[in-house]
Amino acid sequence: MPSLQYKSLLHYNSLLFRNQFLNVSAASPPSPPPPNRNLSCRITSQSMSCSSETPLPTLRTVTITYYELKDKDADLSLKIEEGFGPNGLGILSITDVPEFPSLRRNLLCLSSRLAALPEDVKKELEDPQSRYNFGWSHGKEQLESGKPDLLKSSFYANPLIDVPTNGAYLIQRYPSYCGANIWPQAALPELEVAFKALGKLIFDVGLMVAYHCDQYVSRGMKMQKDEGLEQILLRSRCHKGRLLYYFPAQLSNHEENSDSMSSWCGWHTDHGSLTGLTCAMFKRNDVEISCPDSAAGLYIRTRSGEIVKATFGENEIAYQIGETTEILSQGYLCATPHCVRAPKGKEASGVGRSTFALFMQPDWDEKLKFSEDVYIHKEL
């Protein structure tokens, strides 16, 4: 079994993986799919789009209750395969998680307050050395058109460890993962508490998801205990939380970009292991409202090439599979390209959106073992 450090995968991802996803034969496999099957790559367009007049299918995510999930003796293989397997959407959601509704609300309500802080205060929260992967970030990302994304802001932090390492060499070599958290302790002290509380909960539930993923995968391939997804995530020091806030747009500015299927977040496939997501919160004039456009939301490109809208409840935690997990599991668990579409129309004018994602990923020096049977990008 050849090994490759996670840093190499990340470097490769930044150069080539962004427009690719791994594809498995469309034939329905038994549960679990046959081991050691070859995986192939298919290029996907960065500018995938669909006419705003064409209705697209809406699919509910596969759901697992928290009480099922925490039972290690429960056989959840059918649901894991339905959500994460070769014919799944690469996403499932967990219901009835204790304390999650209040922790979600506490944090998401702070995103607009953070964005409204004075510019000089937010400047102090920026971290150029980490390529803006810690602290405040606004206007640093680009839209698919190549223009700066000024409608979206982000705040990044590791919800589990404030200072993952003091090693100067590591911080210089892996600035996006080894940097230290930056909190607005004077301007918005409650942000740190709310961010860590929600991030820790999503991580803990994510470990339970990972455990059942390992149980499913181990039925089809040989895997040492310390090579499983759960253990890889448990020993990692570089998980990253991202609090997002989409500024309210005026109708004229909003209409410029809202025709695009990926108007709020461009098409991409997560490169890490497992991503935990909250349902978005929408506000107008600081009052919470329902999403003003039923066509807005998360869109996924399926294995057959169809684009569908995926939905889950506001009191559920959704989890998506990343490319690293797909490779390590030899395709038993599959990642899918996805994007986020902004609401459009008069009702969407002046509406802000808040959400949170936790990117669960291997440690910067984790040695990942890939099967010799997987020939993806073997030239590397």
Give a description of the structure.
This protein is α+β, with helices and mostly antiparallel strands and 380 residues long. It has one domain (58-143, 152-360): Jelly Rolls, CATH 2.60.120.330. It is built from eleven helices and 19 strands. It has helices at 6-15, 66-69, 77-84, 100-115, 119-124, 168-173, 175-178, 190-217, 229-234, 251-258, 323-328; strands at 3-5, 20-23, 40-43, 58-60, 62-65, 91-95, 135-138, 152-157, 240-246, 265-268, 274-277, 281-284, 287-289, 297-301, 307-311, 317-321, 338-341, 351-360, 367-369. Strands 5, 6, 7, 8, 9, 11, 12, 13, 16 and 18 form a ten-stranded mixed β-sheet that branches. α4 crosses α8 (190-217). It is globular. Residues 1-31 and 33-52 have low confidence and may be disordered.
Key terms:
380 residues; Jelly Rolls; ten-stranded mixed sheet; five-stranded mixed sheet; 19 strands; 27% helix; disordered N terminus; metal-binding; oxidoreductase activity; IPNS-like_sf; metal ion binding
List the topology elements.
Blueprint: E1 3-5, H1 6-15, E2 20-23, E3 40-43, E4 58-60, E5 62-65, H2 66-69, H3 77-84, E6 91-95, H4 100-115, H5 119-124, E7 135-138, E8 152-157, H6 168-173, H7 175-178, H8 190-217, H9 229-234, E9 240-246, H10 251-258, E10 265-268, E11 274-277, E12 281-284, E13 287-289, E14 297-301, E15 307-311, E16 317-321, H11 323-328, E17 338-341, E18 351-360, E19 367-369
Parallel strand pairs: 4-15, 5-6
Antiparallel strand pairs: 1-19, 2-3, 6-16, 7-8, 8-9, 9-18, 10-17, 11-16, 11-18, 12-13, 12-18, 14-15, 14-17
